[in-house]
Amino acid sequence: MRRMTFIARTLAIAACVLSGVVRGEADGIDPNANAAAGTAGHDAEAAGLAAGTAEIVPYGSSQRFRSLGRGNDPRGWYLGVEATYLAPLYGQGDTSFTLVDEIAPASLSVGSDFDSAEQLTGAPRVVLGYTGQRGIGIQLRYWELNNAAGSTGFPDSIVGDQLQTLGGDDSFEAYALDLELTKEFCRYGWDWLGAFGVRHAMYDRSRTSRAFGAVNGDVFTLSSSQGEAFHGTGLTFGLSGLRPVRSCRGVSFYTTNRVSPVFGSSKSRAFASSSFSGPGGTAGSVNGATGYNDDTLVILETGAGLQWSRDVRGFNGRMFARLGVEYQYWTGSGGEAFAESFSGTGGSSTGFARAWAGDHDFHLIGLAVMSGFSW
Asked: Which helix (H) or strand (E) holds 267?
């Protein structure tokens, strides 16, 4: 029985090598080179099969299902769980606090001063898919990133006229959900997975800042808040590929590329407050502005690295792990919002707080670590 199995698998390999030669001639590739490569591969596979340990690697079949020992049958499920470690890079918006001495006259001004959410942050991605006949399948993907940073200080003792920042908070959230049709195919020594489908995506960024100061005996508390957000649904197009590293068994180069135009609504918001207390009394003001726009958000993604995989024969499947770099660029036109508040004692002092929002572009860059299983 083992001899019959060996003969059947050897014939399958020979058929795949022959089909690769024919395809190479059609594509203008040297058939002798393909035949030589196929013969070498056949010898290696035959030696491995005799020992009962080799994986079937026929020419021209998909990297995912050829490594399962299924010959040219691509049908099967795959699941991947990925940890991306990305740093969101974006503009902080404009914030300013000003105290005006109307007697001197003179003024003091500061901006925001606090830790931003631009650190490497773990962002999970889950991929579940099924491939049927002719390499056609369906795939579901979900990715999410949440991060927040901030610092809150206490005012130092104020001597004379002074203005100092008290820190603030910064938060960032984004996610994307994709449902796609997929097609596996081989070109130029790479095993490709093309994808086309629907994407729902959103992001929300918000920042707050605070300041404290005194002029002419009037004590001021100033604050601002601003942010940008988007949510919508659109299209997504993806192309990812694998190419085996011939000198290292089970290791492949991988690349992922994706573009997604998402249609939805963007929002910019800005709020500012100023309050004081002093010999002349106590007063304050709060003002805000919000802008909404129909918008098209374009998301560009690319990544590259190495993938390692091996058979798990007890489950008739294959486990894999990836390590690489990833970059994303989210860009939209959005809108702007501006707010200003002031308070004070006429003829003595006035405190201003200003906030502006409207930057809807940001970058995500970092590492991608993935493990998964196909069966």
From this structure: strand 251-278
- Give the amino acid at 197: G
Rounded CA-CA distance 73/160 in Å is 81
Tokens representing 171 are 């938060």
Distances from the Cα of 254 to the Cα of 177, 237, 371, angstroms: 22, 17, 14
* Whole-angstrom distance, CA of residue 308 vs CA of residue 125: 18
Tens digit of each residue's pLDDT (9 = 90 or more) over 140-169: 999 999 988 877 666 666 667 888 888 788
Q: Give per-residue burial for 247-261: e unless 16+ CB within 10 Å, then b.
A: eeeeebebbbebebe
Give the pLDDT of residue 150: 74
Burial class (CB in 10 A: 0-12, 13-18, 19+), 296: middle
Q: Any bridge partners for residue 304, and if so which? A: 255, 325
d(CA 86, CA 324) in angstroms, rounded, equals 12
Among candidate residues 335, 56, 337, the one with its CA nearest the CA of residue 224: 337
**Residues paired with residue 306 on neighbouring β-strands, in sequence order:** 253, 323
What length is written for the chain? Answer: 375
Beta strands 317-331 and 349-357, pairing class: unpaired
Can you list the alpha helix ranges (DSSP code H) found in the chain?
2-26, 31-51, 63-66
Q: How far apart are CA 250 and CA 48, in angstroms?
A: 14
Left (φ > 0), alpha (ψ -120 to 50) or beta: where does 160 sit? Answer: left
Which tokens in the block code for residue 189?
């020594």
- Long-range interactions of 311-318: CB distance < 8 A, separation 24+: 311/55, 311/67, 311/68, 311/69, 312/373, 315/373, 315/375, 316/68, 316/375, 317/68, 317/76, 317/373, 317/374, 317/375, 318/64, 318/67, 318/68, 318/373, 318/374, 318/375
Here the tokens at position 352 are: 């201003």
Q: Would you say 354 and 95 are in contact if contact means Cβ atoms under 8 Å apart?
A: yes
Angle at 264 between CA 263 and CA 265, to 5 degrees: 145
pTM reported for the whole predicted model: 0.76
